[in-house]
User: What shape does this take?
Amino acid sequence: MSEPPDPLRAEEAEALFKIHGVDQRSPTLEYAHPALGARPLVLRQDGSTSAAFTPGTSTVIWPCAFTLGDFLCDATAAYRAANPGETPDAADAASHGAIVPSTVAVELGAGLGLAGLVAARLGAERVAITDATPLAARRNLDASGCANATVDELWWARAGWRRGRGPRPPRRGGPKSGRDAGDGGDDDGEPSSSDASDSDSEPAEPEDAATAEEAAGALLATLPRGAAPHVILGSDVCYSQGRREMQMLADTMAALMAPSRTVAYVVFEDRGDGCWGTLNKFWCAAEEAGLEGDPTPIEDVEIGGKKREGEGRHNDSERLLLRLTKRA
Assistant: This one.
């Protein structure tokens, strides 16, 4: 006589196929939230059992995308409830993390495009979903039926985007900065051996590699009125990269942003593979690029002046919401 199935063992077995609570094997994924209505977003991925799977790339979902989607949906629902019947201002809504009909948004390093598609489904005027390898996002956009979004190829991880900036400026007064304290650099600002390894590991760049301003300018020209977006989105874009790549990301964000208009929301997760060091490098790079902001643990994020309700996502306790604006 066979034993009845053990729900606990089945749950444990299912967990083995997930990374921090998301399934990277199944061919399709669903994202649902009351703010999106009854129809969930359905995404295709080339999971680890697919012949098209490429480890560590945009072919699969990564955990922070769901958390960023939740934040956008929660913030938008709260903003709508607090401003019924009003014509909302997109810049004000962006400061709360909300998407309104006049919002223009850009997602960086989109992968499957979940966060950008959520913004589109929430009713943004336009969403530009970008990645260096945009095939997966383009496929999901086509299936979504969202006419208010596009998928664009955008390379921000190119060494050429630092060309011509010259040496790093001296440290500001006060305590030793995170860059100098945490990345192995010398006090005189000279690159350390870790910086050299960052450079050595980068592929040779083409002579015509675009600067951050040039690449961002080409994307900005496609947006409504050629203006900077109100919202920039990023999930799992900081994980275990080097300092130079983080500077490229920060430079790209800064080139896309406008003071008093654009707010960037990035969800970061500590996965124990050097992530905190990378986050430190990103914050230092962001400051150098003219950005400022604060990291908030996901569990402490407030929506409409109150902490978010509900169970949240698996491993949210290891995630931060980074909120960045550009200095005038």
Observations:
- Confidence is low (pLDDT under 50) at residues 159-197.
- The first strand starts at residue 18 and ends at 19.
